[in-house]
Amino acid sequence: MNREVFITDGHWRKTLAAARALGGQGIRVAVGESTRLATAMFSRHCHQAVVYPSPFFRPAEFVDYLYGRMSRRGCQMLLPMEDETLDLLSRHHSDFSKFTYLPIVSFEKLRFARRKDKVLTLAEKLGIPTPKTWLVDDLMQLDDLAERLPYPVVIKPKSGSGAVGVSYPENAEELRARYPAIHRRFPLPLIQEMIPREGPGYGVSILMDENGQVKASFVHKRLREYPVTGGASTLRESVRRDDIRDMAVKLLKALDWFGVAMVEFKLDPRDGLPKLMEINPRFWGSLSLAVAAGVNFPYLLYRMSRKETFAPVHHYQIGKKARWLLPGDLLHFIHNPGRSRLLPEFFRFRDFDTVYDIVSLKDPWPTLARILTLLTFVYDRDMKLRLKKRNHDG
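Request: output the structure for the sequence above.
Response:
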């Protein structure tokens, strides 16, 4: 079999991190995207750049193209990195599995894991702390509910991640105005209590094998985000929180999970409890931190694809940091009202305990490519659609 690993969605930071993680182990990597101007394609660890049909606008052609490539060449492992490619390939798992190792769960499990209302209900049954949540079955309920809520609250879509479709009404009047507007795009969004923003967010990254055994775990703490009110982490740090990790494992085992996932929590300063926020059922944007700290998730998946046995990886460097500088952390600084408190540390770029998601002296070309790809969001309808769908990733 061709020992190559094919990674989709070359625009994203996590794809670059995966290419570097595998290429650093001497593994041949092919990166795919719907355009040649994609960040990960410019990495020295990308041995072949593959332009395929857009999974957004030409999904059937995307599947046919990738299936044709796999049937002709095969590859050791196929890693879909984004929701759209993940969904398409999960629907055709049995077809692709004839030619490659595709470490993802069924489409039904993916859909369940993305549904915040279903995941929160399951978590409550498992005894995992969650924010107080109100489910609206009919808009006629809204007037009565609006008078009883403990403001401020959060309106968020039942599916999806990030700041798209999220609003923070401060009173009943704002709730009545904003909820129907969000409902038109995301039907019957849920309403949650607002966990104070000073409570830090935590991400628990997990790898599980086909038998539901945990093969690796990693926990990071969010230090900065963009948008500032809650979004993708722009600076995060590796930490040891076995209590949070154990809750994430309990939840994923209940789902009979396979492959990677990141479970997100937010610490509630009012009672000291970490509250479950959502499951990210794929690779996450902050993947570079886990790899730098010693948990090489892509390479461990590669070893699984070759039926290798290895001891579970739970130990890693504590206090390691990773920074998404371009453009994430710069945008955080610009939009943070308290930016003066970040000085002068914000502009110190040489720290031996900090790695960068994109910037690397050993692999410099993705940095230039990233700057150029930002321009594609101006004219590329494929990229505009991606940005509208989500702006949050780890």
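Residues 234 and 328 are 6 Å apart (CA to CA).
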